[in-house]
Write a structure and sequence with these properties.
Elements: H1 3-34, E1 37-40, E2 43-47, H2 51-85, H3 92-102, H4 106-116
Antiparallel strand pairs: 1-2
Length: 131
């Protein structure tokens, strides 16, 4: 997998997660604002099952799918970056991506890879052999 492909998948995953978070926030805010939740002080004690409340549940479900899909796409981009960097002679980027991903800093590793990471599928042109 080439670096431009990994970068496109990573950007798409970030967009999907952010869109899902915003959509989920809007759904919950809309439920509170429309009175879909029955409140007793600060506690939710029930739900008014109106058509609008069910629509907001559907929107929240779509938001969850967007977040999960974005997380899966982010993992695919991380694996693609690992497969790309393992082809390099210098294994520094591979080890960096692997360890940061394992220890839950994969987002930091992927941002660094997108900004400054090498492309393992591109080989530098070798000079012709002397006769």
């Amino acid at each position: 997998m080439s670096k431009p492909t990994v970068v496109r998948i990573f950007y798409g995953s970030v967009v999907a997660v952010v869109a899902g978070l915003i959509l989920g926030f809007v759904a919950v805010w809309g439920a509170f604002a429309s009175g879909a939740f029955v409140m007793d002080g600060h506690d939710v004690v029930g739900v008014n099952t109106t058509g609008y409340a069910w629509l907001l549940v559907l929107v929240a479900g779509i938001a969850c799918f967007a977040i999960v899909g974005g997380a899966i796409a982010g993992m695919v981009a991380w694996i693609g970056a690992l497969l790309n960097t393992v082809q390099l002679d210098d294994k520094t980027w591979f080890i960096l991506l692997l360890l940061l991903g394992i220890f839950s800093f994969g987002l930091v590793a992927m941002i660094a890879y997108v900004i400054a990471g090498p492309d393992g599928t591109r080989r530098s042109a070798l000079p012709p052999a002397a006769a």
